Amino acid sequence: MPATAQRTKKKTPPPDTIHMAVIDSATISKNINKLAQDTSKMKKSDTAVAVIINRIEGYTLLLNQLMSSLRRGFDTLNITREVPLVDTSLALIKENIAGQDRTPNINDIYTNKVMLEQLQRKLGGWQNNLFSYYNSLVAINDTLHSLRRDTSMRNIPAEDELYGFYIGQLTRLIKKYRSVDSANKVSLVKIGLLQNKIANRYIDVSNLLEDSNYQLEQFSANMFSRDYRYIWKPHRDSINPLEFFPVFKRSLHKSTRVLSIFFSIQWPIFIVWIVLASLFAWWVHANVRRIRRNHPEQEGEAILQHAQYVYRHPVASTVIFVTTLSSVFSVRYPILYTEIIWGLTMIALTWLFRAHFPKTLYRYWLMLMALLFMYCINNLLIEVTYAEQWGLMICAGLCIALGFRLLKETSLTTFAHPKYTAPTIKLFIATSVFSMLLVIFARVGSAKIFGSSAVVNTVLAMNLYVLVKILLEAVFLQVEANKNSSTFISFMDYQDVQTKLKTFLTVLAFVGWLVIIARNLYLYDAIYEVVTELLSTTRHIGNSDFTFSSVIIFVLVIWVAFVASQLIAYMFGNTGQSTSPTPKPRFGSTLLLLRLAVLAGGILLAFAASGIPMDKITIVIGALSVGIGFGLQNIVNNLVSGIILAFEKPIEVGDVIELGTRSGVVKEIGIRSSKIAAYDGSTVVVPNADLISQQLINWTMTNRIRRVNFVLGVGYGSNITQVTDIIKRAFVDQEGILTNPEPIVQLSQFGDNAVTFQVYFWISDLGNAGTLQSKVLTFIYDALNEAGIELPFPQRDLHIRTVDEAVLNKWKANKEAPSGVYPEDGEKNL
């Protein structure tokens, strides 16, 4: 073997342009010259000069690009830095799992599972990145191999000058190739080693996660089995001879370490919540400022008083908004993080209730907060102690007593409490009683779960109720900030918005509450798996396949799109509650397009999210076409007319129009019909097709200027010039009456009993037409009376053709008789 190796070392391989042992340019050039003399490998040619030069240039550019990519390298620094953190987390979890042989604790097991899932997600992301980097390096390696296999590079120029140029270019190319190849191999080794590290840790995490899932399954199976000594046996035995304070100290230390690791891994989620809180606070503050700017001080303050939470307590409302959403969506977070979120929420709720609750209810609320604090401490304990068992017993008894006091207080107080307060309190009492029974029968782990769930579920029910009110008030401020109206109208708008939104938000809050209950009872995973399997199982009806999830998603998306389209007008202030002519809204008919887009997008999203094939949509459209042909012409006509109104904009929300015998302010331009607020207080619903097909007068299409005219008559014999001057003086210094074009006074005609004038003048806002005309007529009437000019009333000449002879004689006799003397008793002068 040594002799063979020695002989092998003495053999010198033939020179090759690809396999060069050194990088030195002179050596490479010398080897190429030797190869050029070997006609079996290199050929001299005059016809391939252009091809060879182009190839060398192309390969040089390619190698430059590859080297640039390799020099930039791959972003593995973050992975390398965080690998020790993963190792620390794994060591902590292994230590916890090793210490769970005494008394299994569901909170500790679940915390380990949460951490392992976070680590698995992070390691999986790292693996995907490393695989992507490795594939890029393999692609570079394949490119280098393809360059080596190019036989056209074996042709060299026959001419000496070109030959020298070729040798120089090829030398630089080979040197660059060797550099790229070397850098690529180094990167491949580096990425491969890092992949191996990550893969080993991913395997460890997967194994530990399987162990945690097994422990959770075992705990669920033995949930109501005895796990500690009976409370009436205080003597120490072999089950758990632990003291409370050492266990609490170890538990707090472990939870703090878990939280720090969790924050190091999931810190972007905290940034998201902070940004969301900032946006919500800015939204509320901007709307409050806009309301104060658009309304007088007293009126604006009256409007803002309807938002008792977000206006009076903006910081607390923002905290409740963000922390409540975090509590609902934080399904996979450590217990300490969840309890910190609960603490922030409770502090904000206590601040709100301090100003709105009666003293007795507020005192009961503080007692509930104290119980919540005790259960939060209890949830952190990783092992059971005798003191904890007595603490659970006492807390359960206090919860039962507090529940009955709350039931009595809510039945006697006049304070307006939520509709479902009594059922929630009864559930609180029942869960607390069950927790006490579990403590008595030495089921401490289950007692901890149900006792904590009783308090947390009750408190978060109030929390979600307050969140719904905060969201409704925020929407109310959005509505009021985008319109001008009176206080009463503002309140009516708020009631309308509340009616439309409250059901939707209440349903979402109830679903979130159920999620919290399932999570606190550690039933969320089991319920999620059962519901997922139920919804995702494929069903068959005839030749059609469907799943319940697709049906629910389809209905839910369309419902949300419909609700959103209905609320868009209110969100931007176009409520149409006022019939007085006010300036047009900022968005006008654009809201109709937005509503159409929301509905159309919702329908398409519903089909896409539910997995319904597009060919089924074609069938539906075909069926609709048949329906249109038989009886839906009017509906489709109105829909298309609504789209025409949105694009052509002959009318917009806020316009004053006349349609036939009806006139009023456009309140809403809907998809099928539009609403007009008439001046008598009624609302006229007009199909969109009528607005397109009939003759329509729009008084405010371009501006709000309007001409007002009236007819005035004076008695014969009046001075025409004087009357004209009096009428023109009525328009001088009248606010709202335009001077350009100036008022016109024309002598119209000589009537039966008066000289008639026609008067025309222009006003800047048609909403003031009646008021300004009244002022003008009042001034003219007073001025004509002062000038002694008669305003004639109707006069007629009476011609009598025949009169009875007796009546005529009596009239003559009365006329000739002295004044006050009657020719006959009981007769008077005619």
Write the layout of secondary structure elements.
Layout: H1 2-10, H2 25-37, E1 43-45, H3 49-72, H4 77-98, H5 106-148, E2 155-157, H6 160-221, H7 244-294, H8 297-304, H9 314-329, H10 335-356, H11 359-380, H12 386-412, H13 421-440, H14 444-481, H15 487-520, H16 524-536, E3 539-541, E4 544-546, H17 548-571, H18 590-610, H19 614-630, H20 633-648, E5 656-659, E6 662-669, E7 673-678, E8 683-687, H21 688-693, E9 696-698, E10 706-714, H22 720-729, E11 744-750, E12 755-763, H23 769-787, H24 805-816
Parallel strand pairs: 1-2
Antiparallel strand pairs: 3-4, 5-6, 5-9, 6-7, 7-8, 10-12, 11-12
Category from helices, strands and their pairing: alpha+beta
Rg over C-alpha atoms, rounded to the nearest angstrom:
45 Å
Q: Which percent bin holds the helix content?
A: 55-70%
The number of helical elements comes to 24
Number of strands: 12
Strand content: 5-15%
Question: Largest sheet at a glance?
Answer: 5 strands, antiparallel
Strand order in the largest sheet = 8-7-6-5-9
Measured between the Cα atoms of the first and last residue, the distance is: 165 Å
GO cellular component, one term: plasma membrane
Domain Mechanosensitive ion channel MscS: 634-700
Protein name: Mechanosensitive ion channel
Family: Belongs to the MscS (TC 1.A.23) family.
